[in-house]
Design a protein that fits this description.
The chain has 11 helices and no strands. It is elongated.
């Protein structure tokens, strides 16, 4: 009987230790320390993204930004490749220049959102969400709305929309691609698509940074992915 009692006490003690350990990790993760570490990861990711967006060459060479290209714009570029490959390169170059023009608008929106993160957001990260996912939810729409006028200003300055429409004049596929409503690329539409690419590309970069660094930085807090 004594053996059973001792065994029961030992098991209970182990369960208590494990439970306390898990609770400790959770407590640390949702503490000011855990929150500050997560904010640091995001802020570093934002800095990396802004550095890439500030450099035209870095922007054009980044595969994550290309991955963020909206399907409609990708299809338009595929059509342009057949009639004027150099125009696709010119369009990408202009969007890269527009990206640099949006940095000072995007940065404070993202940084303010990071500083507003709270313990509830950290709990979501512990439960499986990424910090970037939460940041995207808080800022994505705001970012698109904020940078679209700047992107539109830049693209109109370069006259890229008129050049694209001239190159694709008479192409019946363009009308079907744009929903049959028009046979021309709309200036506002191109700016909207380019803005969506810039915002999504930025989140891809931040998320990539988080994935590469979260295990080493967040692991000791019990929230590493």
């Amino acid at each position: 009987m004594k053996k059973y009692i001792i065994a029961a006490v030992l098991i209970t003690g182990m369960v208590t230790v494990i439970a306390t350990s898990v609770q400790s990790c959770s407590t640390i993760a949702t503490s000011d320390l855990g929150l500050s570490v997560i904010k640091k990861v995001l802020l570093n990711g934002i800095n990396k993204g802004m550095g890439i967006y500030s450099s035209k060459d870095a922007f054009l060479q980044n595969n994550l930004i290309d991955k963020a290209l909206p399907k409609e714009l990708r299809d338009i570029n595929s059509m342009l490749e057949k009639v004027s490959p150099s125009l696709v390169a010119k369009e990408r170059d202009y969007i890269a220049q527009a990206a640099a023009y949006t940095v000072n608008t995007s940065r404070p929106i993202l940084e303010n959102a990071v500083h507003s993160l709270n313990a509830q957001d950290v709990t979501r990260i512990i439960q499986g969400s990424t910090a970037t996912q939460i940041l995207r939810e808080k800022t994505s729409q705001q970012l698109v709305e904020a940078i679209t006028p700047k992107v539109d200003e830049q693209l109109n300055q370069y006259g890229i929309v008129k050049t694209i429409n001239t190159a694709l004049a008479g192409n019946n596929l363009l009308g079907s691609l744009l929903g049959g409503k028009t046979a021309a690329v709309n200036a506002g539409g191109l700016s909207q698509m380019a803005s969506e690419q810039l915002v999504n590309g930025l989140f891809y970069i931040i998320e990539d940074y988080e994935k590469q660094n979260s295990k080493a930085i967040l692991g000791p807090l019990g929230v590493g992915k």
